[in-house]
Design brief:
Radius of gyration: 24 Å
Number of strands: 22
Helix content: 25-40%
Strand content: 15-25%
Length: 458
């Protein structure tokens, strides 16, 4: 991060200096009081369960000399040497400061959103950009109105290109994040059913994701995965240029002949500007052919050749537990516990089916959250899909997951349901054997990684 003068923070946020000197500087910005220290600015955030203002004294004691607050009453009596900046809303003002900071860097900006795969696409674009540029991306999975600004502050004068993921649960959130970034290129991975509980329908989800395009600009680009329903030529029109990716012949990047090699990755063909390329990707899942082409397209717009982009993709390491293979004492475990939606469940199940093993193929699936009234239907659809695959056993965990078992009932694979993980654990050892491949997946709140930990020890 570049040093920021206190006076610049006040100007960028419309804040008020309650104490301190406008000519002082900060070296970093933190919202976690436990890691704040000398040279940092602590941002006190009021959340549903915690209020960061309670920790102002502790960060000052730890050597933090600047606090960014909305409640002045949190300041101690003795604030000698402390810079205290007061704003109406620390989260919103943090975004304003991030927008000002990013505007001051000479960087090319790519923004990524979508129902499924946005973190994977973000990571792929990062590795593609890194073939030519000093590139940056979000910290971990920081993609909301707090995490995205904090990620931006990690960039400095040496950063040449950045790719920033944007997540959302409600209308208006992508609009706010995109207003901070003002991307040169926007990427939309797909329109699924994640967050339908808050947005009402897939049409609502599409509208929320498309908020990103209002901040691209006339010289910008929208890169999208064509789905024939929402992400189409007609529905994505705007005052910007577009590139479509998909298997349809009308796509600018036309994908074909996708070969699923299970845990070893995928191979596919893609036609770009009338030229065909054969690509091998060491990332499992046929859906990653589309993800990779979104990354190639974004890279090409920034002057990166297809060959350079493929070299970058070959180095890609995806964030978090996304189809991550862990070798256990008896079985290989596919840890895909980062999150779950109907589409990502189906994709992971296809990877399991295509995986080579000497034992059985076992899926352990948990609840998918935020599906609202569609929850039972979507879980059952996953079960029906699993039942048509060449897998040996389907274990479901959670209240909603019983609908997955219901959907798979009558199929050739063995099916069982447990209401809780604790009910499953005593039986894991009898299910998992030598040479098996075990897929574990569910929504983040299910903490399915706990099952991964048990499975690898069997």
């Amino acid at each position: 991060m570049k040093k920021i003068r206190i006076g610049e923070i006040i100007k960028a946020t419309g804040g008020r200096l309650a104490a301190g000197d406008e000519n002082n500087y900060i070296k970093d910005i933190k919202q976690d009081s436990r890691i704040c220290g000398e040279g940092d600015m602590f941002v006190a955030i009021k959340g549903e369960n915690h209020d960061g203002h309670k920790y102002v004294q502790s960060v000052i004691d730890a050597g933090c000399s600047t606090v960014f607050i909305s409640d002045e009453s949190c300041l101690p009596d003795n604030i000698d040497g402390i810079n205290a900046i007061v704003v109406e809303d620390t989260v919103y003002s943090l975004g304003d400061l991030a927008a000002w900071y990013l505007d001051g860097l000479n960087v090319r900006k790519v923004a990524v959103t979508g129902s499924v795969g946005k973190t994977s696409v973000r990571d792929m674009i990062y590795y593609v950009l890194s073939e030519k540029y000093n590139a940056g991306r979000n910290l971990k999975n920081y993609n909301n109105d707090i995490g995205l600004p904090l990620s931006i502050f990690q960039f400095d004068e040496n950063t040449e290109a950045v790719v920033l993921e944007m997540g959302m649960n409600h209308f208006g959130e992508i609009d706010r994040l995109a207003s901070i970034v003002k991307p040169d290129i926007a990427v939309i991975t797909n329109i699924g059913v994640a967050h339908v509980e808050n947005l009402g329908s897939r049409e609502g989800i599409f509208k929320a994701k498309m908020e990103i395009v209002s901040h691209i600009g006339k010289d910008g680009w929208l890169v999208y995965a064509r789905d024939g329903e929402f992400l189409t030529e007609d529905k994505t029109r705007g005052d910007y240029s577009r590139i479509s990716v998909g298997t349809d012949k009308v796509c600018d990047y036309m994908i074909s002949a996708v070969d699923d090699c299970g845990l070893e990755g995928i191979q596919f063909s893609v036609v770009i500007d009338s030229k065909s390329y054969e690509i091998s990707l060491p990332v499992p899942g046929v859906h990653n052919a589309e993800n990779a082409c979104l990354a190639i397209a974004a890279g090409k717009l920034l002057g990166i050749s297809t060959e350079e982009a493929v070299a970058g993709l070959d180095k890609a390491e995806l964030t978090g537990s996304r189809l991550k293979v862990v070798q256990g004492k008896k079985a290989r475990v596919i840890d895909d516990t980062y999150n779950a939606s109907t589409d990502s469940m189906k994709s992971a199940l296809k990877v399991l089916e295509s995986s080579r093993c000497s034992g059985r193929k076992i899926a352990i699936l948990g609840d998918m959250f935020e599906l609202g009234d569609e929850s039972g239907k979507e879980h059952e659809a996953v079960g029906k899909f699993a039942g048509r695959l060449d897998i040996d056993m389907l274990i479901t965990v959670g209240n909603e997951a019983q609908h997955i078992s219901k959907g798979a009932a009558g199929s050739k694979c063995e099916v069982c349901w447990y209401e809780t993980k604790d009910e499953l654990y005593p039986h894991l050892e009898e299910y998992i054997g030598e040479g098996d491949v075990v897929l574990v997946k569910g929504s983040r709140g299910m903490k399915m990684e706990e099952i991964v930990g048990k499975a690898v020890e069997i």
